[in-house]
Design brief:
Length: 393
């Protein structure tokens, strides 16, 4: 990049890239294609990867690689799960995970099949001060056969088909870790696999039988990653760890042993008490619907309604907490009477015959405000609407 291109990027990093491209002839000294790519990259990583955004020397790849890369929050979390002397990242990509995990290792090897991504990674690791990361352009499946043993292997298989469609089965990912797993565990005692948040955990476990830990990571109550950790010394006891990174450094954790959830049971109720609880996205994905209620001594509204209630305020609950204001009966007259006093509300359905969009049309109220309405089924099969206000944490 020449100085004109650098200055153009600085001056226009928040501008619309499509509009900038239309007027490229106005800046003949600017490498416009590179500038547009850099500005597009900066806009995508501004909140996602602040460490990269704040370094103007970082070079950015094509859009797909940025979309699939980890955020700084989730990359730092993964870095807390592993340490040792040697790490090999078999699917380097944009290098976000590799960079943050490298802080815990003396020697790190980044493997990537796309030559351009390798060139970008080599440059970016240098400007970020991570000179101990070696970059190698190779195909994962070919390299694994010859690779030396290391302390940790990290692999993040691509989750898009050749047509660009997202995939959720292990067999549809590239590389297919299910058929590689035994070889990976010959090369390293510890293997970390990043999977799609849409992945069926039970189905993945049938293929990744050496799993010892499953980490489910959510950011702002949106499930972002499922991380499987496999170990040569598998004791068959699988620990599930959920984490939700909220705003203002508010972090929610809930950990459990998978067999404990399987062997547990819920205490059900049709009586809604003073407080209502909705587990966060990571807990919901984990399927710990029985243990979460038992852990906090709460009652569950229905075996298929993943909402809980208590008479006392439980501030450490990993999810959203609401104070119940009113419980509506499901009849037309009751609904009409209550809707006339509400101009807007936040609607949620849980184990209810119709979805949110249909319910909003029926209620004729707009979205938003401080009122939360949960349409759900109770343990006695009664359908109700629970009117609440959110408890600030």
């Amino acid at each position: 990049m020449n100085q004109e291109t650098i200055q153009f990027i600085i001056d226009n990093k928040d501008k619309d890239v499509h509009q900038l491209a239309l007027h490229s002839s106005r800046n003949p000294l600017v490498n416009m294609s590179l500038a547009i790519r850099q500005i597009n990259g900066l806009q995508k990583v501004k909140n996602k990867i602040p460490c990269f955004y704040n370094n103007l020397n970082i070079l950015y790849p094509a859009q797909l690689s940025l979309e699939q890369s980890s955020s700084e929050t989730t990359a730092i979390y993964k870095s807390t799960l592993c340490k040792g002397t040697k790490l090999t990242d078999l699917t380097g990509g944009f290098g976000v995970d590799c960079f943050f995990m490298s802080a815990n290792f003396e020697q790190v090897l980044y493997i990537e099949r796309q030559e351009e991504l390798c060139l970008l990674a080599k440059h970016n690791f240098t400007v970020l001060g991570a000179q101990h990361i070696e970059v190698k352009n190779a195909i994962t499946e070919d390299y694994v056969n010859e690779m030396p043993c290391v302390d940790w292997i990290y692999i993040d298989p691509a989750r898009r088909s050749s047509s660009g469609k997202k995939v959720v089965l292990l067999s549809d990912c590239e590389p297919n870790v299910a058929i590689m797993v035994n070889l990976l565990l010959q090369k390293s005692k510890n293997v970390m696999i990043k999977l799609s948040p849409m992945m069926d955990i039970s189905a993945a476990l049938t293929e990744l039988t050496q799993t010892t830990e499953i980490h489910i990571v959510a950011v702002d109550n949106e499930c972002k990653e499922i991380i499987f950790i496999l170990n040569q010394d598998n004791s068959k006891k699988i620990i599930v760890k959920t984490v939700n990174f909220g705003k203002s450094n508010h972090i929610q954790h809930f950990d459990f042993e998978m067999n404990n959830e399987i062997n547990s049971s819920s205490v059900l109720t049709s009586k809604i008490e003073k407080y209502l609880y909705e587990p966060n996205a990571a807990v919901m994905k984990s399927g710990a619907f029985k243990l979460i209620g038992n852990e906090f001594n709460m009652r569950k509204l229905h075996i298929n309604t993943h909402l809980y209630t208590s008479s006392e305020l439980l501030l450490h609950f990993p999810g959203r907490i609401f104070e119940v204001q009113k419980v509506w009966e499901n009849g037309k007259s009751e609904i009409k009477k209550n809707c006339t006093r509400l101009s807007k509300a936040n609607l949620t359905t849980r184990n209810y015959p119709i979805n949110v969009d249909e319910l909003r049309k029926k209620f004729k109220i707009s979205d938003g405000g401080n009122v939360y309405l949960f349409a759900c089924t109770l343990s006695n099969e009664e359908k109700v609407i629970i009117e609440c206000e959110k408890v600030a944490l």
